[in-house]
Q: What sequence folds into this?
């Protein structure tokens, strides 16, 4: 299970100058604040902010963003106050945590935000700092990774919201790997049979088309080189949701 030491190890790989003491303090405060809370899985609640923070290390986020991830549910779900966060970590982190708290109170199915596009615009308008939105997306990703512990009706609501709101926001930020994972996790909830059919077909095609793709790349490279152009040919596999 992920712990604060493994998290700090992940951060120092891309940021050797990270403030380990400050991050550890944020972890301790979050752990104490959430100490009597459990996830639907039965895991201690602190496992969730830890995993959200770990996701953010994959995108090499700064210390303030990591600390915000560790604290992102404390104001809404515990007795910790924004004033206490500000006193411990300063105005920057307090502002980020406050932004996450406000977004967390939004409801896709309220009358003023019944259209997904309006809801996306509302979130963007409330995210004065893009790091707020990035933490929210990482939060949603971990919740989607663990969605099977929720009741089926709740899963459907969250998956629909993910496809209509959070995956497109990831795309707007250019975080395409995050967008694809959100789409695939949500698709697997909304229509698992269709996803499996498409996935099986893709696997069948990929096993038969490798030589053809290599041949096309070779021919294309040959023609481009004739014009003395520096180039790189790249490709990616289509995911089931993008085909559906």
A:
């Amino acid at each position: 299970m992920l712990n604060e030491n493994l998290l700090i190890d992940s951060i120092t790989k891309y940021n050797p100058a990270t403030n380990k003491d400050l991050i550890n303090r944020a972890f301790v405060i979050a752990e104490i604040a959430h100490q009597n809370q459990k996830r639907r899985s039965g895991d201690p609640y602190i496992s969730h902010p830890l995993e959200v923070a770990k996701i953010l290390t994959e995108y090499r986020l700064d210390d303030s963003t990591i600390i915000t991830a560790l604290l992102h549910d404390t104001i809404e779900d515990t007795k910790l106050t924004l004033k206490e966060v500000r006193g411990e970590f300063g105005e920057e982190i307090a502002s980020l945590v406050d932004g996450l708290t406000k977004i967390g109170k939004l409801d896709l199915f309220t009358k003023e935000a019944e259209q997904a596009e309006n809801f996306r615009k509302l979130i963007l308008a409330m995210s004065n700092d893009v790091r707020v939105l990035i933490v929210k997306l990482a939060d949603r990703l971990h919740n989607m990774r663990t969605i099977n512990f929720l009741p089926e009706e709740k899963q459907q609501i969250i998956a629909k919201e993910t496809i209509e709101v959070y995956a497109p926001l990831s795309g707007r930020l250019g975080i395409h790997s995050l967008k694809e994972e959100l789409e695939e996790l949500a698709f697997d909830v909304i229509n698992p049979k269709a996803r499996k059919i498409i996935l099986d077909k893709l696997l069948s095609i990929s096993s038969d088309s490798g030589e053809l793709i290599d041949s096309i790349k070779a021919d294309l490279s040959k023609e481009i080189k004739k014009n003395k152009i520096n180039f790189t040919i790249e490709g990616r596999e289509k995911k089931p949701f993008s085909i559906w």
Observations:
- The domain at 4-190 is CATH 1.10.3210.10 (Hypothetical protein af1432).
- The radius of gyration is 21 Å.
